[in-house]
Amino acid sequence: MEAYALLMAATLNAGTVLALASLGLLINEKAGVLNLGAEGMMLCAAIAGFASVVHTGSDTLGLLAGMGAGALLAGIFGVLVIWLGTNQYATGLALSLFGAGFSAFAGIAYVQEKLPERASFAVPGLSDIPLLGPALFRQHPMVYAAVVLCLALIWFLYRSRTGLVLRAVGESPESAHALGYPVRRIRLAAVVVGGALCGLSGAYISVVYTPLWVEGMVAGKGWIALALTTFATWRPARVLLGAYLFGGVTMLQFHLQGAGVDVPSQLLTALPYLATIVVLALISRNPAWIRVNMPASLGKPFHPGS
């Protein structure tokens, strides 16, 4: 029973990383902007967050530093693709490559650094419930914040006027512009907010999830988050469930290794990426389903004068 509780807890923890990044990318894509630079933003945010905690001892400042790094890089990306008209795919890939290289360079001095002793969290009364207590109620506050963020995003996108405008910009920027909405500024705001959430995810990895700095420690989670938005057909609730699914697959490898299952460790390590490929292959069999759910202007530039 204890092993299952630990597996559930680890699944929620791993899923939070993907949920934060995927919800950020979902906001981008709902506005019609595709940012393939999630991996690079998360890496830069990871080193920014880790370095901040090393120097200040504050996890909160570390997470905020990660959000700031992600927002800054996303803002640069947004200016390039929205105002200067660069290709979204090429610019996003360049951002990922830049983030990988810059984080490796900036993190050289922090490879051997250690963070202050990690605090433990527990919800009074609920954390002592057998099985459910250790699994659900001894998590870092960011785990619960990811769930609240998902619910807030559902309300924002489908119940608020601003959210409806954001979706309209993603569906038909020409119509939104004709109605007087500042399409480019709305897209830039969405990109910056999405970048901040990707940055929060990256900082969560280095500050909470695995509190250390290692070059390339995001290990493809940014790419999985990108795939997850498609897998979830751009719906926040499905993004959250998908994040926990992929988090469970990630943690399953360690559970199987601990149980002494005679499977090559390389195959177990590849499980999350194999699951990503399988899911995308299954989704691609029905392209009409993707077209129905995908924002109509996703990846397409908008020029107000055209």
From TrEMBL:
CDD domains recorded: TM_PBP1_transp_TpRbsC_like
Subcellular location: Cell membrane
GO molecular function: transmembrane transporter activity
Keywords: Cell membrane, Membrane, Transmembrane, Transmembrane helix
Membrane topology: Multi-pass membrane protein
GO CC, alphabetical: plasma membrane
Domain of life: Bacteria
InterPro entries: ABC_transp_permease
Segments crossing the lipid bilayer: 6-26, 33-55, 61-85, 92-111, 141-158, 188-207, 213-232, 239-257, 263-283
Entry keyword Membrane: yes
UniProt cross-references to PANTHER family, sorted A to Z: ABC TRANSPORTER PERMEASE PROTEIN (PTHR43370:SF2), SUGAR ABC TRANSPORTER INTEGRAL MEMBRANE PROTEIN-RELATED (PTHR43370)
Protein name as annotated: ABC transporter permease
Species annotation: Limnohabitans radicicola
Organism classification: Bacteria, Pseudomonadati, Pseudomonadota, Betaproteobacteria, Burkholderiales
